[in-house]
Amino acid sequence: MKIDCLHRFQHLQPDPQLPEKFTFPFYYSPHELAIQAAHEIQEDYLKKNPWNHNFGLDADMDGMVIGKMFGVLVVKDASGEPGYLAAFSGKLADANHHEGFVPPVFDLLDDLGFFKAEEQEVNALTLKLEELERSNELKKLERAVEEEKLRSEMEIDALKALIKSEKSKRDEKRLHAQLNLTPDEQNELEYALKKESIEFSYQLKKLKASAQENIDDLETKLNQLQEEINDLKE
Question: Does residue 85 contact residue 6 with C-beta atoms inside 8 Å?
Fold first, then answer.
């Protein structure tokens, strides 16, 4: 750790009594040395405000008011002498590094640092993801699937209606044959009618298979594109 991050107390009582362990950080009475360290930071830095940062304490100061959280940590050096560290949250005056304050674990503002490099990669993925989600190909495939399903449904319904109509005609022919044709003629007619019925059934089966094949082909292409989008999201 840089030595300029370690502060010495300006006024320290001989052999100060330090706590043996940390207290609960969210509900406790701070130690007198922590209070003294906070006051010294306020006097040495915040009141002088060398960064020209508008904390909202001076009504006449220009710039956007941006509050800032500061913290102090009482420590001992290698020789056992007490001192304290100081830090601030986020960035201060558009910078993360200031004399007298512990630097961040990683610098959000460093163009060559971890955060900026990862941010660029994430931004590139986000841009590609947005392009795919807004792409004409995705919309075109989604529309094509719906249109193919609708077209297939209409064709199948139309063929079913025709099959039903033709069945009624065959029933009428059978009734007419029973009244007017000989047994041999009836058998011949029945054979022809059954053949016609089988042919219609085959047409319906073939139409359904063809329609499903077309839908599956479009959905496969759509799923591939959606998988690419999901992979980018993941």
Answer: yes
